[in-house]
Every structure is written in C-alpha cells, then in structure tokens.
Write a structure and sequence with these properties.
CATH superfamily: monomeric porin ompg
CATH architecture: Beta Barrel
Shape: globular
Strand content: over 45%
Number of strands: 12
Largest sheet: 12 strands, antiparallel, barrel
Strand order of the largest sheet: 1-2-3-4-5-6-7-8-9-10-11-12
CATH topology: Porin
Distance between the termini: 29 Å
Number of helices: 1
CATH class: Mainly Beta
Order of helices and strands: HEEEEEEEEEEEE
Number of domains: 1
C-alpha cells in the first residue's frame, strides 16, 4: 500500500510543471472552502486518504470518486463512490481486506463570498449509505482571503447509524473542528497548515474521545486540474482512556490525504 501511495504522490509531483489557476480549486484537503462551481461546470475528483499506525499493525487506504456539478452561482451538488483497502493484525494473523463503502450525496450552498464580503460562508450537508451503516454530516464553512493569505474554518457535525444485527442499531455522534491557513506564493501554488480536532460522543454518555491532528498542506492548480495534499500526524489526544497519550483505538498515528480535481 505504501508503495502504491508513493507512486500516486510521485505522479502528482510530476504534474507540477504546469501553470495557471482555477477558481474552484481546493487549498486544503480536510478543511472546506466556501466557493462553489459555476452553474453548468462539472468536475471529477478522486480522493485517496492514507491512515496508518494503531496499537497493532494497521494500514488503510480510503478512496472516494466524486462527480461534482454546479447548479447555480451559489449551489452545487456531488455524488460519491466510496471504498477502502486495509491490512491489519487480527490476533496472530495479518489480514488484508477490501471494503465497499457505499454511496454519498453532497449539497453545498454559498451564502457569502470570501473576497467580496466580510467573510465567506457556506452550508454543507452530506448523506452516505452502505449496507452496514449510514451517516449524515453537516458543515458550517467560514473562510476569508486576506491578500495572499487564506484562512478557513469548518464546524462539522456527524451522526452515524451502525447496523450491527437485524433489529439492532448503534448510534455514534461526532463534532469536528477544522482549521486551515495557507499562503498563496503564486496564482498556482500555496502552502500552509491544517489542524483537525475530532470529538466522538456516545448518546447518554457524553464525550468519549477527543483527538488532535496537525500538519502541512500544499496545493497546486492549473486551468484544467488542481491537486492538494496534506500530511497530518496525531498530536497527544485531548481526551482518551489514558490522558496525554495518542488515541489509537479508532484513530491512527498518521493521516495523509491527496485530492485531485479535473475540470470536465
């Protein structure tokens, strides 16, 4: 898996000889911006997220293929296909699994523009469905362009239903706070930092875990495509069963995400 990820990242590096910029490009991979596609514009976005390092051996690649369409000058929608591959230790055996992650539908509405208005603002909702679980996610997106500096903040609310057995459903909830800061060195290239605070809650029990990730992000865009890459190690968790340590039961020591966008 690591070799495959290196090939993907190397391919992105080889593409960085082009120039130019496109208004719909993303400058972060976890933190969303308020912009939407122009009405009638279509974009294809393959995602790859690497997650590695738990208490035992654990490597996972999550893949998403997104088909995005601008409906009006303020509204866009998208359709996703989700799947993942992972290798982990189960007892004395090391096993590899491929998992179909279902489908997702996204809707995003821009309320304010980060350049023309005091701040940019958008509302986002995404529903996902798979055979063993479903999820509803909502975001409040705020961003602002200060000359060559872009600052973005997301408040994310997640509610997941896991279908353990027939007639039994387990509910999980999470609140995530994402922050991105990037400096645009040219119309095409930017670099900065992303921070994620993921908080998991159990109904009637309250906060179960609060993890923190932070790391560098780089982005590049041309007239026909763009790419963004972030590498985010986990920092000491804000809340775990053992205070001051990493949370390695449901999270990893390292997350890295690559998103490419192709204008069709």
């Amino acid at each position: 898996m690591l070799r495959g990820m290196g090939v993907v990242l190397g391919g992105l590096g080889g593409l960085l000889v082009a120039t130019g910029a496109e208004a719909s490009e993303r400058r972060f991979t976890y933190t969303y911006q308020s912009g939407v596609l122009n009405a009638g514009d279509v974009e294809l976005e393959p995602w790859t997220t690497f997650r590695g390092g738990r208490e035992d051996y654990y490597r996972r690649l999550d893949h998403r293929l997104e088909f995005e369409v601008g409906l009006t000058d303020r509204l866009q929608t998208a359709f996703y296909l989700n799947f993942s591959a992972k290798t982990l230790d189960e007892g004395a055996a090391r096993v590899s699994e491929f998992e179909w992650g279902g489908i997702s539908s996204e809707w995003k509405y821009k309320l304010m523009d980060p350049v023309a208005d005091a701040v940019g603002m958008a509302l986002y909702v995404e529903g996902s469905y798979a055979t063993h679980e479903s999820e509803l996610e909502a975001k409040i997106i705020v961003d602002k362009q200060f000359g060559s500096v872009l600052l973005a903040f997301n408040a994310v609310f997640e509610h997941e239903w896991v279908f353990e057995e027939k007639g039994e459903t387990e509910r999980e909830m999470a609140v995530e706070l994402d922050l991105g800061l990037a400096y645009q060195f040219s119309p095409a290239f930017s670099a900065g930092i992303e921070v994620r605070n993921h908080n998991e809650m159990v109904p009637k029990e309250g906060l179960e875990a609060a993890t923190l990730f932070a790391g560098p992000v780089v982005a590049y865009s041309t007239e026909r495509w763009w790419g963004a890459l972030s590498v985010m190690p986990q920092l000491p968790a804000l809340k775990t069963e053992e205070e001051g340590t990493l949370e390695l039961e449901d999270h990893e020591k390292l997350n890295a995400r690559l998103i490419l966008g192709f204008h069709l």
